[in-house]
Structures are given as C-alpha cells and as structure tokens.
Specification:
Blueprint (H helix, E strand, L loop, with lengths): L1 H5 L9 H19 L2 H9 L3 H4 L2 E5 L1 H11 L3 E9 L3 H13 L7 E5 L16 E6 L9 E6 L3 E4 L13 E9 L4 E9 L5 H18 L3 E6 L11 H12 L3 E2 L6 E2 L4 E2 L2 E6 L8 E8 L9 E7 L16
Parallel strand pairs: 1-14, 2-3, 8-9
Antiparallel strand pairs: 2-15, 3-5, 4-5, 6-7, 7-8, 9-13, 10-13, 11-12, 14-15
C-alpha cells in the first residue's frame, strides 16, 4: 500500500543522478538570470537614459501577460523575435505560443526561416502581411517579418547589408507607420563563424542611413555575435562600441541561447530613438522561457508614459 502511494509522488521513478541533473539545470537557469555582466559593462561605459532605465526580464507566458496588462493602455509598439530554425518545421509551435499571449505584436521578426515552402506560410497569422528574404547560396538562413495589416508598410531597398560568400547575411528593412508614428524595423540573420570585423562597417553604413532619416528604428535578429564577449574579444568590443556611438542601444542584455555547457547572447534587438527622444518612453524587453527552438524568443515594447491627471490626488472644491 505504501509503495503504491509513493509511486504517485513526483520524481519517484527517476534515479538520484537524474534528480541531481534536474536540480543543477534549475541552478544554472537561476545563475543566468542573475548574471548581468554585459548590461553592467555597457551601463558603466555609456551614459544613456535608455540603457540606465531599461526594464529587462526573463518571462514565462503568464509573467509576460501580467507585465503586458500593466502597460497595455500606453503601449506604442510591440516587437517579437525568435530564431525559428525553419518556419516549415516550427510554424505550429510559433502559432500556439503567440496564442498563449494576451498581446498581438505589431511586428514579428523571424530569423533562420529557411527556404522551404515559404509561399504556404504567408497567411498563417491572421491580420498580418508577410515579407521575407532568403539566402541565395543555401536553403538555410533567411529572414521573415510579419507586419500587422493595420500598419502602412514599405520596404527600404536603399538600406541593405550586402551579402557574399565570405560574409553571408540576410536582412530586410521596412518602414512602418500609422497616423501617429513612423518606425523603421529591420530583421537580420548573420550566418555563424564569419569575421565580425568585416561585418561591423557594413552594418555601420546602414546605421548612418537610418540616422539621416531621424526615424526611430528597431533592429532584431540572430546576429551570431556573442555580446557576453564584450570585454573579452576585441572585434566584439568594437562592434558594440560602434552601435553605441551611433546611438543604437542593445536591449537584449542576457543570454538567449542556453545549453548545458554555455550561454550566449547571440539574438539581439537594438533601438535607435530618433524623434522619440522628445517622448516620455520606457523600454521593456526580455526573453521568454520557451523551447520552441534552441533559441529563446525575445520581446521589445515601447511604452509611452504620457503624463496623466491623477484624479485621486485632485483637490475638490465647492463653488458657492
């Protein structure tokens, strides 16, 4: 009788070794959440209000829904990114995950969409238009961006990072707008194991073109440059400093790809405030705890904190 009762308890059927591995994985997860080395370094290096006030967090779906509920009324723009590792393979997981969230993101950026049956996935997300570009030399890689149909959208062909065999990169630059705002949103996938020093000036040229427009810009994608190496690797240091010099702020500051051996910040979202510098905005960003692929999904929210009358603090008087 006692054995039957015990067999219903959690972890009854796993060995002591398996239990130890499970516990250690939770410990690793907790240590990663508390590791703010990269964020601390750029805060110390660059005195910018966006970085100083950045509200970054790791979230489950429920955590994010609670966060969104607090800022929904003042949300100006919401951007989602994930390395999808083949849209053909993982589109159902993407749809199910997005359905678990209370928000409908304005822009959904997907890196590594892979060039398989993409024409079938233009309409999988209701009320979105799909824009994409793929690699000319391989079926892997590629970038896709879903944009809400309520937003006016045009592709900026004049802004593009050139791709070649030595520096393979897919990128898509869109200008989205409504009557109240205009943003440039870019999706980038840079293939791994390539020279960072060669990529930096190519991206810099695009940043300079965006700055001339003075339009706020969000760049999201799997760049395959580990930002946690900022203080260890010269090329990575120069790359990040170049972003900061042009006022493009990294808003994903904690690991996005986590294995049993290593945690890296290879999925990035950068924000250039442009004309938004005159607004009272707060940036909320973070990573979702989700195993859709081997990269954690990322989110980026621009919250417009306009001053409102606090009626509870209003002094009422009687006119006689």
């Amino acid at each position: 009788m006692c054995d039957n009762f015990l067999s219903e308890l959690p972890f009854y059927n796993i060995t002591a070794y398996e239990l130890e591995l499970l516990y250690s994985s939770f410990a690793v997860k907790d240590n990663i959440c508390q590791n703010t080395d990269f964020y601390d370094k750029i805060r110390a290096t660059y005195n910018n209000s966006i970085i100083k006030e950045l509200d970054f967090s790791y979230c489950t779906e429920d955590d994010f829904n609670r966060l969104y509920k607090k800022c929904a009324s003042s949300l100006e723009l919401g951007v989602f990114h994930v390395n999808i590792r083949s849209l053909n393979k993982n589109h159902r997981n993407l749809i199910h995950f997005l359905q678990s969230l209370d928000i409908t993101f304005d822009v959904i950026v997907l890196s590594e969409i892979w060039n398989y049956n993409l024409e079938f996935y233009c309409n999988i997300l209701k009320n979105y238009n799909f824009h994409y570009t793929v690699c000319n030399n391989s079926n892997v890689g590629g970038v896709g961006i879903y944009v809400k149909k309520t937003l006016t959208c045009q592709q900026l062909h004049s802004i593009s990072i050139p791709s070649n065999i030595d520096q393979m990169v897919e990128n898509l630059w869109l200008e989205i707008s409504t009557e109240s705002f205009t943003y440039i949103v870019a999706g980038i996938y840079r293939h791994p194991n390539q020279n960072i020093a060669d990529f930096t000036p190519k991206l810099e040229h695009c940043l300079e073109l965006v700055k001339k427009k003075k339009v706020p810009c969000i760049i999201a994608g799997d760049i395959n440059i580990d930002l946690s190496n900022y203080s260890k690797n010269t090329a990575t240091n120069n790359y990040v400093d170049n972003l900061l010099i042009h006022n493009f702020m990294p808003t994903i500051v904690m690991p996005t790809r986590i294995t049993s051996n290593i945690a890296t910040i290879v999925d990035h979202i950068y924000y250039y405030e442009g004309r938004n510098c005159k607004k009272e905005t707060i940036i909320k960003s973070g990573n979702f705890w989700n195993d859709m692929t081997d990269h954690l999904p990322n989110f980026f929210l621009i919250v417009n904190e306009r001053k409102r009358i606090k009626y509870l603090d209003t002094k009422f008087i009687r006119l006689l």
